Amino acid sequence: MTTKKLLQYFTTKEDLNLAFHVGDDIKSVNFNHYQLSKKLNYNLNTLIYMKQIHSNIVHIINENDTFKTPPICDALITDKINTPLMVMVADCSALLFFDKNRRVIAVAHAGRAGAFSNIVQNVIDTFTKHFNSNTQDISVTIGASIGECCYEVGEEIYAEAKTLDLEYALSKRDNSYYLNISKILKTQLLNAGVDSKNIVISNECTSCFNDKYFSYRANPKDGRFAGIISL
Q1: Domains identified in the chain and CATH numbers
Q2: CA angle, corner 182, sides to 42 and 210, nearest 5?
Q3: What pTM was estimated for this model as a whole?
């Protein structure tokens, strides 16, 4: 979705790989970013992405952050205009946040580790504590991710989920456990005060739709697609 006030977009394989750490040619990745910036009409030099580490760390954009110096974290937040924020995924969930009243945006990367450590709560806390947001004004869009249909996990993950009271997001089929990350993220958003009508979650599974999206589970050497948001 693109308007005069807000850019929100999820890429697909059609936009090619956007990650520098998956063994792709650096010049090719830079060109893919350049092509995307032209397609979405933003200045590539102002784009901020992350060196994602499967944490629950939220970083507030500052003057040291540039396309060439990405911060190490798993969520970004800013109220700066013309500063696109990007999150890259290939089975994990890409979350785009927007506070329509305070004019604040954020992105977050949430795989199992991010969901289990509740990165969602850290992002919402940053909205409220640093930007004086009201949670009822925050809308969240979550892109395609690996679904419960394909996300098989072992006994140790099942045990960890139970310890964290996340057993509700697990199902069992043919003596195997399957994890529903989207269910965890939606529950955490609701618990953090986000209104259910302001939460939109894609029902596409990246592993099932590997012809459309990059998927690490389907191919460990795959690239990364992205969620992007900008004021």
Answers
A1: 7-230 (3.60.140.10)
A2: 65
A3: 0.96
